[in-house]
Design brief:
By secondary structure, the chain is an alpha/beta fold. The protein is built from twelve helices and 14 strands.
Length: 330
């Protein structure tokens, strides 16, 4: 209890809002049917999309988040916005499109690892709104890039919001959310499009696969050297059950996770970065986190637990922990 009281009294009473920009979609999950989608016969509908998941992760912990993305003007879009709103996310900046809501079909292996096949729709129709820029000042943005760098209106809006955040000196978090199904035989294009965000982001969250792909290296220290040289100051690389690798200009650390039996890892990375952003949004001074790594290490330990909890149930958003659940788990 002492730790939680100590942390509580250091919260910023005016917690920053985190604007999560990118896609919300419907995951059709082939639960308990193995990793081969061609053999799947039954699917369960789940709300998903990495930026939407992150927004929900923040809100369910008691933070302030807003989702900026486009869903269809159809029953699936209505369902998605309802799930976000019920979680406490501000959906006033979400848009509706005549294009059908984006769908993803997800297979799960026995260890909870997953694969995706996408049917893209309304997520690519996001329109840039210049009036949003003023809301970025003093807050934070999180850019999830699963579908955002594939061209069209979404990529244009995404880039505009990125430059708005730079102009407003907003804290920027970037997660490339690499999906092989979307970038097959176009990996070099993916790397090229991610580099401007890595160069300007304060914080990047990578999987190990993404860190190696984006850096062209095959060890974590070498990958971090390249990515730091590109510009990012704080790097987190999620290692699944092994925890998280943290790299900053001050040093490098592996922060252990907790041992659990995973059934679905779909939302684990989003729960992790959502919890970390929740903690960062509540700190009195974001600059303080660049001075030494002790506070980041403690925050990442908590974020690892949030990610672990999320893997113990099916579906990303409904499995995200609230603060009470996280405290009880600790």
């Amino acid at each position: 209890m002492g730790f939680w009281l100590h942390w509580y009294f250091q919260l910023n009473p005016e917690m920053r809002k985190v604007f999560c920009i990118g896609e919300a979609l419907i995951d059709f999950v082939a639960e308990k049917q193995g990793s081969d989608l061609s053999r799947a016969k039954e699917f369960t509908r789940k709300a998903g999309g990495a930026p939407a998941n992150v927004a929900c992760a923040i809100a369910k912990l008691g933070g302030r988040s807003s989702f900026i993305g486009s869903v269809g003007d159809d029953p699936f879009g209505t369902y998605l916005l309802g799930v976000l709103s019920d979680a406490g996310v501000d959906i006033s900046l979400a848009q509706r499109s005549e294009t059908f809501t984006t769908l993803a079909f997800v297979s799960l292996a026995a260890d909870g690892e997953r694969d995706f096949v996408f049917s893209r729709g309304a997520d690519r129709e996001l329109q840039y709104k210049s009036s949003v820029k003023a809301q970025f000042q003093g807050n934070m943005i999180h850019l999830g890039a699963a579908t955002a760098l594939l061209g069209g209106k979404l990529e244009e809006a995404y880039m505009h919001y990125f430059f708005d955040a730079l102009n407003e000196k907003t804290f920027i978090s970037f997660d490339p959310n690499f999906r092989q199904d979307l970038w097959k035989n176009k990996e070099k294009d993916f790397v090229r499009k991610c580099l401007p965000f890595i160069s300007k982001a304060h914080l990047c969250k990578f999987s190990m696969e993404e860190a190696f792909l984006l850096s062209g290296k095959d060890t974590l220290p070498e990958a971090c050297d390249v990515l730091h040289h590109a510009g990012v100051r704080i790097i987190t690389i999620t290692l699944g059950s092994e925890g998280t690798y943290l790299s900053t200009p001050n040093g490098r650390h592996t922060i252990a996770s907790v041992k659990i039996k995973a059934v679905d890892t779909t939302g684990a990375g989003d729960a992790f970065i959502g919890c970390l952003l929740y903690r960062l949004a509540a700190t009195n001074s974001l600059e303080a986190i660049f001075e030494k790594d002790d506070l980041l290490i403690e925050m990442i330990g908590m974020a690892n637990k949030a990610g672990a909890i999320t893997t113990t149930n099916y579906g990303a958003i409904e499995s995200l922990p609230g603060l009470d659940q996280l405290q009880a788990f600790v």
